[in-house]
## 1
Amino acid sequence: QVQLVESGGGLVQYGGSLRLSCTSSGSALDDYAIGWFRRTPEKEREGVSCINSRGENAFLADSVKGRFVGFRDKTKNMIYLQMNNLKPDDTAIYFCATCWYGIGEYEYEDWGRGTQVTVSS
């Protein structure tokens, strides 16, 4: 089991940018595929991304393609989600988690407490 901690959320205006960070104090994230999902009052879980151990964006949701990108910094044991051109629909709690491709969709496990992202219109 991996213990993950998210940070970097906040309040941003429509069209703005944020960078979310994810780290683990007890595990080397190189060994895992790490991704992000988000939660809103309307939807328990929407997969956003999954970065494989090679640092490739194995998955980006259609709703964020062209705006979000995930990447790793192995020297810092960090995973990032760069979010550009943010929209009010991106407002959610974002969680980083281990990820893998399940039956028809990406699955997530071992998520942290999440970080709130709020985009004002």
## 2
Amino acid sequence: QVHLTESGGGSVHTGGSLMLSCAASGDGYYRMGWFRQRPGAEREGVASIDKYGTRVYTDSVKGRFTISKDDGTNILYLDMQSLRPEDTAMYYCAADREWRYSLRVEAYTYWGQGTQVTVSS
């Protein structure tokens, strides 16, 4: 069993920055990702990192967000720069036993409870 706990959300103005963290306990997972869900919208993939450290991003965050992980402490990060009002959402950490990165919601087995990010203009 894998347990995920997100932290680091908050409220910032346009152009601000936040660093999200996801503490993972348990083992047997390889790919990890960050997802977000806006009110009234479906959950969408933001960034993913696979077993070998290969990263993928959704187009709207490329050049602004960076996903990384510390295998020693089992913490996943999402460094968010140049935030925009459209980045406002609940952000979720996810993990799965498969090794290859993915931005598909259905590709993940384990999910955290989420952390809210609000960007005001």
## 3
Amino acid sequence: QVQVVESGGGMVQAGGSLRLSCTTSGLTFGTYAMGWFRQAPGKEREGVSCISWSGGITYYADSVKGRFTISRDNAKNTLFLQMNSLKPEDTAMYYCAADLVFGGVCRGYEYTYWGQGTQVTVSS
């Protein structure tokens, strides 16, 4: 049974930083593309950042370029999202997802396995 578990969310003031982590079990992590998605109340889910299985190819939404960094440690089955210069508009539930195919961009419908999410709240 595949499990995807996010952690690291919390409350932070604007301009602050958070680091999200995502661990998986039940799949061969190093062969899966991974992604971070977010959804704010009343808004559609957004692909924040995605990364190929090797880590060699990454994608960032325009809204987070230059502020967020995605990375992965295949030896530890862990995905990270370093979020700096956070803004109130980054407030959302953040989800980690996995799929065998890396499509080059973050399209949620392309991802098979999903975590339950971790809440990020940025106050002004």
## 4
Amino acid sequence: QVQLVESGGGLVEVGGSLRLSCATSGFSLEYHAIGWLRQAPGKEREGVLCMTRGDDTTYYADSVKDRFTISRDFVKSTVYLQMNDLNHEATGVYYCAKVPWYSDRGCDDREYHYWGQGTQVTVSS
């Protein structure tokens, strides 16, 4: 059974950092592109960044390029999102999601087929 479980969210001040975790099970992490998505209050869910099977990072939002990093630990079957220099725009529910192993579209956000339940991140002044 495929599972993705996010954790690590919370309340952080502007300029602070946070590391989110996505514990995965039921599939082999190294064969799937994995992404992080965000749903801000009153907005639709959107992609933040993604890592392909080949360890290339795709950024859906230019605003996070120098501040957010995605990484994977195959031993722990966990994906991380390190977020630095946070601003109010980062507030929202963060989801990790996976792409099917057979997809050849890398981090195309139309390819996600499993998502976690999300973890709330709130950036305060």
